[in-house]
Amino acid sequence: MDTTFDLVMRDDLFVLYADGKPFFSSSGHEVSHSNARLLRLCINHEIYPVPGRISPLALLVRLTDSAAGSASFFDFDLESEISLDPLLSGETNRFPELHAEWVAENPEMLELLFLNASSLVSSLNNFFLKKGQNQTKSGYFRQVISEMSAEKLTALNALHLANEAGVVIHTLILNEFLCMTEYADAVYILTLMKRSPFLQASDLSFDKNSILRFREKVISDVMPAVDFITLCKSENKMTVIEEIIKRGEDNSTEFKSTLRWDIRQGLKSSAIEHASLKTICAFLNSEGGDLLIGVRDDGTIEGIGTDRFENNDRFLLHLWTLIKSCLGDEVVEWVRTSLQEFGPKTVCRVKCGKAATPVFLRQKGFEEAFFVRTGPGSNNLEISSALKYIEQHF
């Protein structure tokens, strides 16, 4: 591979870089996503490309363009495919209609047909369990499509283009109603049905080895798309906050277990609040950085629930009140906050940019101070040093 890819964190997204520059789609949109694992999957497949295999990077580029309105989700007419889909028209009932001569000559295919017809029918029944009493299968399928995520719609388009065989079969694998082997065998059967609805021996040529090769090729070609969807699940995401935690504390990252609660003494403490505020002040006066509240020094999750606010909104209200009252209203321009849940616990990210003007910390009960970032800590500069620093940096 000639291109060198990398990930760069930006706000709550990871931006894909190629050879040191942001990677753009052919429509001119910067390719990014909120999930680092998804981008790493794309890079992995670009390092080891396989001809014919669905490219996760191509899926991500299409997803980017679709989100920007530069491309539709489908390269085919969905309504036409729905009207022709054998799994919606009931053509699976034709499986048993085989010629006696064909059955005698193709025992492996007969076994494959009946084994997988049974699995396919069971999966279809499960898929349609939530269908309304007066709702047609086609109508329910349209409803399912309308509720699918942009990532799944992008993968559905790629699967259909790779294997055809209708659209329902690909929706079943993307929604985990089929395993990969069942899916590959079902695609094989549906492909044969498309060539010859009654599976007459006159126009078919296959044996056990050909079936096995077909199955392996389908699994190999579509597995990246299934992996793509697997990593899109919320429980499988590697978010910016998780990436920051993994990176650990450094000159642009600091963790605080709580915002106001002194865990050792078991009470609210302005000194604990001061610790977070001086970090924010130091980031603003330096090159910016991330403060994670609800994360212990070792990177394990404490959660902002320890601060004993009524809810997350109350937590954020208190945090912003502290920031504006102690650092000045003008810093709002350079500070962003976001929350992420880790099971029952929540972490707050305070992302600080580099301030355009010097920021002083003025908190009741503490001396006015000017903090800058020095290595992994926040340093309070003496007046003379602060003046020199301000002259050099602002």
Describe the structure.
The protein has 394 residues and is α+β, with helices and mostly antiparallel strands. It has 3 domains: 5-68, no CATH class; 78-148 and 168-215, no CATH class; 249-393, Schlafen, AAA domain (Methyltransferase, Cobalt-precorrin-4 Transmethylase, Domain 2, 2-Layer Sandwich). The protein is 47% helix and 13% strand. The chain has helices spanning 36-47, 56-67, 78-84, 86-89, 100-105, 107-127, 137-147, 150-163, 168-174, 180-195, 208-232, 240-247, 270-285, 312-327, 383-393, and strands at residues 5-10, 13-18, 21-22, 32-33, 253-256, 261-262, 267-268, 289-293, 335-342, 345-352, 371-374, 377-380. Strands 1, 2, 3 and 4 form a 4-stranded antiparallel β-sheet that branches. Strand 6 and strand 7 (267-268) form a beta hairpin. Helix 2 (56-67) crosses helix 8 and helix 6 (107-127) packs across helix 10 (180-195). The chain is elongated and about 95 Å long. The model is unreliable at 91-99 and 196-204 (pLDDT under 50).
User: Mean pLDDT, as a whole number?
Assistant: 89
Number of domains: 3
- CATH T-level fold name of the largest domain: Methyltransferase, Cobalt-precorrin-4 Transmethylase, Domain 2
The separation of the N and C termini measures 43 Å
CATH architecture of the largest domain: 2-Layer Sandwich
Work out the helicity level. 40-55%
Shape: elongated
Structural class: alpha+beta
Unreliable stretches: 91-99, 196-204
Beta-strand content estimate: 5-15%
Rg, alpha carbons: 29 Å
CATH class of the largest domain: Alpha Beta
Q: Main sheet, how many strands, which sense, barrel?
A: 4 strands, antiparallel
